[in-house]
Amino acid sequence: MIEAARPTAPVMILDEFLAAEEWRQLLDFTFSRAEHFQPTQVISNDGGDRLDHDTRRSVVMFEPEWVRELFAERLMTFFPQILTGLGHPWFEVTRIETQLTGTGDGEFFRAHTDNGSEAVAGRTITFVYCFYREPRPFSGGELRIHDTIFDNGGIRDAGAFRDVAPLQNQVILFPSGYLHEVIPVNCPGATFFDRRFTVNGWLHR
Prior knowledge:
Layout: E1 12-14, H1 20-32, E2 38-39, E3 42-43, E4 49-50, E5 56-57, E6 59-62, H2 65-77, H3 79-86, E7 95-103, E8 108-112, E9 123-131, E10 139-140, E11 143-151, E12 154-164, E13 170-175, E14 180-182, E15 185-186, E16 196-204
């Protein structure tokens, strides 16, 4: 029998990323802003945004300032360890971008990269921080990170992949050029508050 290839995409996971009172504050803030979330869009080849429900279904709220500041401070505290863990060469971080995303029943994000157009070419390391109310009201929603072949400016799926379950107060980091996707979430009959929530963002060079 031929063994499946083991995934080799660089991934780093940090558990208990926020203090308990911080993630609780984040959850309360998210719940209090339900009406501020809007359908997510995808980035077109020309750098513009467009709705594409075949590629991505979820809701998003952009750049709450205190959330960005909290994650920027924490991520830069761990920055040397992040680079070491990913085997990534040093670079100067010029910007940290964040957004709040909620993914509900049947929602997903198909395989994509985060820096494939000129408008977002500076994205270098992607992070996905998971949080939700307890007990966890959904299943699915794994982050699937694909081994990716880089060839003459293009990319293609190498076949192997790693699924990372969305666990409370955990942040997942990987290079932004790697193909990745969100597996569909399952929480039938659920409300906004039962979604798989993430703070996802990017360290720009």
